[in-house]
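Entry:
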Amino acid sequence: MRTLVIADIHGNLPALEAVLATPQALKCDRIISLGDQVNFGPQPREVMQLLSRLNAIMLRGNHEERILHVDAPEYAGYNWVLQRWTHSQLEGIALEHPLDHTEGCKHFTHGTPGDPFHLIFPDDLPAVLNSLPDGVTHLFSGHNHTPWIVEHHGRIACNPGSLGMLEDGYGGNAPFIILEESQGRISLSPHKIPYDTTALKRAFITTGCAEAAPQMARIVLHTMLTGEHQATLKLVRFISSLGDLGDREAWRRADALWRWREPLSTADYWNNLKEELL
């Protein structure tokens, strides 16, 4: 049995299509996606439809969990406008997937078992592995956008890395894991491939994502193109220093002061991309 294990696609369809076209993925019998299939990226609907057509096992990440409660008062501010746009693209698409999936000695989840919001780091893994139920030797999780395969006292933690928003310092790369099981043995093979970033940039414009959430879409695209670690969080913290995150004007003020990689206003940035790509 060969399984393609992926995580954190975040609406990045070109990255997903690139992975699915690899010889390694084409030889797989099935797909398991560890949550956060949607949000941030411009094609959440297309990602979900493609995974559904392929009968992928999909788990619920923290982004699916938030989108299921998009009308809650805490998500009313401008800082959640991209989440609301994503929700609008997903009419009729099921998001109530399970939080966890267990098969014998293997446990699949998004953050940690039962908690898609719990962000773990490599230093946390020994304690997390020690807390697994008896008989579980392999933990597969996402949420943290950096890949790892860590062994501790005979147990293994595997994070394939974010397929759609890999924070590798380079950008434009999509990671995945091939899980192979034969005669009771388990082997894990990590892979990473480049994808079509021009198609990604074009999708931000043509889907209306950039128009709906200009500044947030720009920093998300920046992360996808550069792999810069925590770029989105850095911008959010900067905006918080200027005012209320839920205030559209705070985002506009930050846009004028933030040191973007391209020394342009966000409006000019998207207008230039439109002229270049459309």
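The two ends are 43 Å apart (CA to CA).
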